[in-house]
Structure formats: structure tokens, C-alpha cells
Model the fold of this input.
Amino acid sequence: MSKKTTTVNLDTPPFGQGFRMPAEWEPHEATWLTWPQNSSDWPGKLPVIPWVYGEIIRHLTRHERVCIIVADEGVEQRAWQVLGKVGVDRQQVEFFRMPTNRSWIRDSGPLFVVRSHPESQEVAATAWKFNAWAKYEDHNLDEKTPGQVAARLKMHCWRPIHGQSRRHVVLEGGAIDVNGAGLMLATEECLLSKQQHRNPGMDREDYEKVVHDYLGVKKVIWLKAGIVGDDTHGHVDDVARFVDRTTVVAAIEKNRSDANHEPLEDNLSILKDARGVYFKRLRVVPIPMPAPLYFRGQRLPASYLNFYIANNVVLVPTFNDPNDRVALTILQELFSSRKVIGINCTDLVWGLGTIHCLTQQQPAQQPE
Done:
């Protein structure tokens, strides 16, 4: 848990007070998830999804605490039944009862920020507005999640605003990726397109200003587009991710006739030409896409880059595809100090997201 201090002014954005958004590989206090319950997210497949969650949580609890949001006592009891059968350590799990609309806490949950002290690290939260990817109407419960989580953790929490109108800014966690040292990845398709328009009237400079003030971002690398089948309209966590402060993995599609080929080539070129905060080139490592995956005639956003970095382990979505092994091998070489584990997500991706989409890291107060 985090304890509030008296040195934080919520009227001043966090970066001006020494806070920044840490990289995902920095030490975690816990991982947050929301137990699956909305059948519209996985039409016809919801009964199998808790078992995928169980497998993910089983691996996470070997390395860190897992906080699970559930709607009520009944859902909590059903979750315990699944977790018990797959061998999850009960001492590593904590349930929080609060109603939600969906399970994608990467997008609806808080984005945590940290401030370093000589012997500790202070953790606080930012509660961005969530409007269900500017696509769905049922998001009134999910909108409350960041503030509720921060309150349960007794953390300071900022409500990011921008401009003279003091607009509450929409931003999903899957729309950005940071290296913890001032660099951020995002796509124009997600944040600047007028389709599924998150913040009408905000341009590139507006976004750069607000992520600077609230997340400590000094430079944004703007990629073009996301992948085909992505319900969010361009989330970056399917196409490019930081794996350390100077290395980025980028999804590539070698099949020239595939709809993903050209957009991913464009993104790859941008990354190869990009410079970091101190004008140094990034190391860019390509990772192939799996073959197109369909269910009920719909192409699904299957990507190995939707992995999640936890303490000592990296969980990677796999799809019963020959490139599963290729992707796992590349990531294991990059994360040499962590164990890279594949999680079969052929059912989970029917919800139009996988492991990174359903997790949210809470930074540790005592960094290594």
C-alpha cells in the first residue's frame, strides 16, 4: 500500500513535483486485473476465459502480488474456485470488490507515477478519462475505476486536464508505451484520427504537453497505425514496445499481400530513423506477426507484442502458430534476466485483446 504525504499538490501536475511514469520492467508492488464477467467481450467463449486468467495469475503470483477486481462476493468465490484448481498461491492474491463494465484494466485503470527518494520510491496515480475507446456506451462504471483504486490504496491521484477548458483528457494505457526515461510511443491512428476520436480538438502538441505534465514524457515517437482487427483503432501495444531504455521491438508482417504489411513497414521505418531524448538512435528488433487469426469470420488482433513484463517473468501471448517459437526466442534473448513464458491466447484474443490489455502494473515503493 502507499501512504499519502503532505508534500504533494494536486493542483500542480505530477512532473513538476518530480513524478514520472516508470517503465513496465521496473519493480512492481503488484499486478492488477479485473475478473472477466462481460459476455459481450467474449461472445460464446466466456466460460473458458477464466481458465486463461487462472494460467496468467498462476505465473504472476510466483513473482509478485496480484490484485483482482471483482463485482461482488459471488464473483470472488467463483474466481477462487478457478484459482484453487490451477494451483495459485492464495497468499499472493487480494480481491477488491467494485463494479466494472469490462475487464480491460490496462485502458480503464489508473496509470501510476513515481517519485524517488533517497531510500524509497513514492507511488501515486493518474486517473485519465475512459470513454470505452470512443466506441461503446457502457463505460460509466469503468470510468470510476482509477479513482476507486487510488482511494483503496490511499494514494494521491491526479485527474489529467488540458487547456483553458480544463478538459478531462481521455487516454488509455494501451495507447502508449514508455521507457521510464522520457520517451513514449504512440500512434497517430489512435490519438489523432477523427475516427473513434478521443479528444476532439486536441492535436499532436496538445498530447505532448499533457503527457509531459502528467507522465514525465519528454519526447513522443509518433508511429502511423495499429494492426488490422484492433477494436481500439490503433493501440501501440500491438505494434511496438520498449524492452529497455534504448531498445524497441517492432511487429513486422513479411507477407506483402497481408493488410498489416505496409502499415507495419511504415512504423518500422519511423523507429529506425527515430532518436531518443539525447538524440541517440534506438535499437530496433523486428518480431514477426502470427498468421491471420479469424473467428466467426472476424479477423482478430493477434500480436506477440501484447506481452506483459512482470517481476522476473514476461508473459507472451501465443496462437498455436509456427512463429510462436520465433517470438518467444527473440524475447527471451532480450529479457535475459527474466523467464519468458508463452500463454495460449487463441480464445482470449476473441475479446480483441490479450495479456497486456488485461493487466496493469503497480510500481514498487522500494525499488531494487
